[in-house]
Write a structure and sequence with these properties.
Blueprint: E1 13-19, E2 22-27, E3 33-34, H1 42-49, H2 61-73, E4 82-86, H3 92-98, E5 103-107, H4 111-120, E6 123-125, E7 139-145, H5 154-164, E8 165-176, H6 181-186, E9 200-201, H7 204-214, E10 216-224, H8 229-235, H9 244-257, H10 262-278, E11 283-290
Parallel strand pairs: 4-5, 4-7, 5-6, 7-8
Antiparallel strand pairs: 1-2, 2-3, 3-9, 8-11, 10-11
Helix pairs in contact: 2-3, 5-7
Length: about 300
């Protein structure tokens, strides 16, 4: 079977090499980096069942503030007052939306996360397609935080988001940026390359292709965030392996450090503007509108 880019369908690639026996390829057309993972992969099947087994479901204060600001930006889309977070995890954005009066819905595959969502009083399900509480075209906002890089068939995921969004509704999506500084410097040594968990690393161009097919028009995108910990470790020729948890913890500490005091926050804003301008931030953030009924 010919390997095709999951974003644009192109079959011309640059081979990047293997990591944990999985071969990554970079699309010549849109720059998306992907690998192929078999559906019956035993590592993948057990990974998400236990993804949050030891999770404390606590959101750092600096993240809470950021999510509160994000939830405030959703207000202009409020018509039905329903928000859906696909792969809600700790539920940070649902908590922020709930404080603003939204009715909160979420999907997850992790039993621990589903139990957490039920305790919070949200409407949650592992299979929304079979759950009548999830109304098609009944949501003003759908969010996908760090989810799309995990799925081998992103068209199915984006199609799901489109089915639940009303025409004119907002899809907000975040994912690691395949054109970031860390990826350019570290290549496959960047811990974001963690198969079979992370299958596709996206570019803005690749997302535009996939979202257009799913019935969205891209309103805007930006990149932000830079965590130098892994690059510094390479410079120092560190022998320790930085896993995802170490990377995330270091990133959180950096974010908190640059959120203290007006001067540091101004510096952080300036850095993020530069990262956005050159499209080299670690995280790609995208706002898209569902087309239909005179929209787009």
């Amino acid at each position: 079977m010919t390997f095709k880019c999951p974003a644009c369908g192109n079959s011309s690639f640059r081979r990047m090499g293997k990591k944990r026996r999985f071969e990554y390829k970079e699309c010549h057309k849109c720059g998306v980096v992907s690998t192929r993972v078999a559906e019956e992969c035993p590592e993948l099947q057990s990974l998400y069942d236990h993804y949050y087994d030891h999770g404390r479901f606590e959101i750092p204060t600096v993240t809470v503030r950021s999510l509160d600001n994000l939830a405030a930006s959703f207000e202009s889309f409020k018509r039905f007052g329903r928000i859906l977070d696909i792969g809600f995890g700790a539920g940070g954005v649902l908590s922020a939306a709930e404080r603003r009066g939204w009715r909160c819905f979420g999907t997850e595959v992790s039993p621990a996360a589903l139990e957490h969502g039920e305790r919070e009083g949200w409407t949650v399900s592992a299979n929304p397609e079979a759950d009548s509480r999830f109304v098609r075209s009944g949501f003003d906002v759908v969010t996908l935080f760090e989810v799309i890089e995990h799925v081998p068939e992103p068209d199915l995921l984006l199609g799901l988001a489109a089915r639940y969004l009303r025409p004119g509704g907002l899809l907000y999506l975040t994912t690691p940026n395949a054109q970031s500084i860390n990826r350019r410097v570290l290549q496959l040594k960047w811990s974001v390359f963690s198969p079979p968990e992370h299958i596709v690393l996206w570019t803005a161009l690749g997302l535009r292709h996939a979202l257009t097919r799913a019935g969205f028009c891209c309103a805007r995108f930006r990149t932000e965030g830079f965590n130098p910990s892994e690059i510094l470790a390479q410079v120092r020729q560190s022998k320790s392996k930085l896993g995802g948890a170490s990377r995330n913890a270091a990133g959180q500490q950096l974010n908190e450090a640059f959120s203290r005091g007006r001067g540091r926050r101004a510096l952080k804003t300036g850095v993020n503007r530069c990262l956005a301008f050159f499209q080299i931030g670690d995280t790609l953030k995208l706002w898209a509108i569902r087309r239909g009924l005179g929209v787009g």
